[in-house]
Design brief:
homodimer; 353 residues; Rossmann fold; 6-stranded parallel beta sheet; 12 helices; 18% strand; elongated; DNA-binding
Chain lengths: 353, 353
DNA sequence: TTGAAAGCGCTAACAT
DNA sequence: ATGTTAGCGCTTTCAA
């Protein structure tokens, strides 16, 4: 930010800086013991209605906010669920978060979000930081973690749910889809519809394990039909329509024989669609398209791009459900594996006319 | 989720459920006092290299994870910053979060996100919950809060930064843009480019104060030119391209004389663009368009939709900077008001050819 | 139904 | 450079 585009001014300070209130303050104000105040505020044990009313009134009028830090230390109960995801700008993860919130809102648990930017080192740091708050559970994306992360999770003795991906070995519970299978199914459908000259466009996959697995499943299924991917195009950084356009232009210039483009996500697929349409290419007659994620925004384009729904909300919901059910400390359901069905959406771009 | 699309199976339980380790365990394992272990782990005070090495080795080999709850209680220092936003699916807030993270990553502070779903009651709950963890600061969206929320914030004696919006009275610090001004400037530009029959498309604004303020500024500036908004179209729920299309179709059917459509965000504006283009309408000759937010994805369309950049990342950065600077407990900078400049991006849809 | 005492795991403050 | 002591503000446990 340059200095010339902001205006700074000063308000009067309306805050009153005093010592935070404690149970004791409420105790004195209401003329009841701290213990009874504590009981009222947590709805625990037997308290007479009269006392309860007195205490609540005092607490409210003072503006008392309980100190969860002290409470958590004393009770060794923390109503926090650590949620560790690679990114917030990916559209995918906000959807997962929505599913998680839907379920946790009906429980005393609260999600706390940590973002790793797809870096295993950062994941390790974030995890360490979150575990040091002794959460009631951990939900984290993916099955690939550093050895240290795995060690921390195993010895934390809290429920751990790895989400998004089921292709691999889990630490405890897993909820996700098989990305290999998603890739395979898409490949089969593409071949079935008669496309043969297939190009792939996606992220550089060294870090993106799920994209890699989809690609592996994809090529594997093609290989079984005796087909190979003709050309590939990779990109760095975030997805955007603009990148989808550029990549599509480049790959088609290099390999004009292509009759199908498989994109590793819907955003770049939509960009590809726009490029093809403006280039006067017949979609899906001349060239077919497919993306991945089942993103809602695909509905707005003139053609509905084929995609595969990654069941993001459901993944969030199931993961949260597992944590909520186990937050009583029971070991019931330990090591559950929930594999959801990736749903193919044919749309308009995967049917030869 | 229906039962038939998931597969459940059970892993072996690899976790070992034992008592969490304490400082004392590390103290015993390394043969140093708890206090010295604590110093090593926090890089505080003078510790000999030999001792430091011993302690670190013991801590690492045991897999010790410090208990921040106890630490926070003892030191009354909590390295958490409460960030309270209306939604994660809005695209706007992930950008703000990115700005916040950029700054906090260089500090000991960590953001904790709470989501209100645009509900003041929910905001109150989330705020209460977060304040009960005694965070080092609070960043929250908007200037409109319930009386109880305001009271809590005022008596919390932590830095509070209200973000996004500067049109109103702040509790402590503010970082944002003037949405009234953003609306005014857009109106002036539209008139300047010769458009006269102007329609507005946006959310039902009872809850969305910022959209409302933009609209107020917009109509006010138009009124000064003797112009009134010809027609309006509102929608509920999340934004989408599809909604932008539908709304545009409806408003144009009702008011075919319109020559400009002002949308309350870029997503529905882009949907509008797609609709107009497919209807064979000349944009921006016959009808001009503008959105709001300066969203990146606008770059992918065949015409760049006019918009106004809401400086989302900068807002996040500045807010985090204020908290970070004040987290030493000083009152320096109390009540700062930072008004950023909304930047008009003319694009292609706000120029008569 | 209410209260008193002990202590959760750490760190501040003060020794040594 | 290292150790000792006394809490932080609650909840657990036990007593009344």
């Amino acid at each position: 930010m340059s200095g010339d585009d902001k205006v700074i001014s000063i308000n009067k300070n309306t805050g009153t800086a005093k010592r935070p209130l404690t149970l004791k303050d409420v105790s004195i104000a209401s003329g009841v013991s701290e213990m009874t105040v504590s009981r009222v505020l947590r709805n625990r044990g037997d308290v007479s209605d009269a006392t309860r009313a007195k205490v609540l009134k005092a607490a409210k009028s003072l503006g008392y906010v309980p100190n969860k830090i002290a409470g958590a230390l004393a009770s060794s109960r923390v109503n926090l669920v650590a949620v560790i995801i690679p990114s917030l700008s990916n559209m995918v993860f906000p959807d997962v978060m929505t599913g998680i919130s839907e379920v946790l809102d009906d429980s005393p648990l609260q999600p706390v979000v940590g973002v790793t930017n797809y870096s295993p080192e950062r994941e390790e740091q974030v995890l360490f930081e979150m575990l040091s708050w002794r959460p009631s559970g951990v939900i984290l994306a993916g099955l690939e973690h550093s050895d240290a992360s795995v060690a921390m999770l195993k010895s934390a003795s809290v429920p751990v749910v790895e989400i998004m991906d089921t292709d691999g070995e889990a630490i405890d519970a897993v909820v996700g889809i098989s990305h290999r299978r998603a890739g395979r199914e898409m490949a089969r459908q593409i071949v079935k519809m008669g496309y043969r000259q297939i190009g792939f466009l996606g992220t550089k996959m060294s870090m993106d394990h799920r994209a890699r697995k989809r690609f592996e499943g994809f090529t594997e299924a093609l290989a079984r039909e005796g087909i190979e991917v003709v050309d590939q195009e990779f990109y760095d950084g975030g997805s955007s329509l603009a990148k989808g356009r550029e990549m599509s232009a480049r790959i088609l210039e290099r390999s004009p024989e292509l009759d199908f483009l498989y994109y590793s996500n819907d955003m770049i697929a939509a960009g590809g669609l726009l490029h093809l349409q403006e280039s006067g290419i017949d979609v899906p007659g001349q060239i077919g398209l497919a993306g991945f994620n089942g993103s809602e925004f695909l509905e707005g384009f003139s053609l509905q791009v084929a995609t595969m729904d990654a069941a993001r909300r459901d993944i969030g919901r199931e993961a949260a459900r597992i944590i909520a059910e186990r937050s009583d400390g029971s070991l019931q359901g330990t090591g559950q594996k929930i594999e959801l069905e990736p749903r193919l959406q044919m749309g308009d771009t995967l049917r030869r006319r």
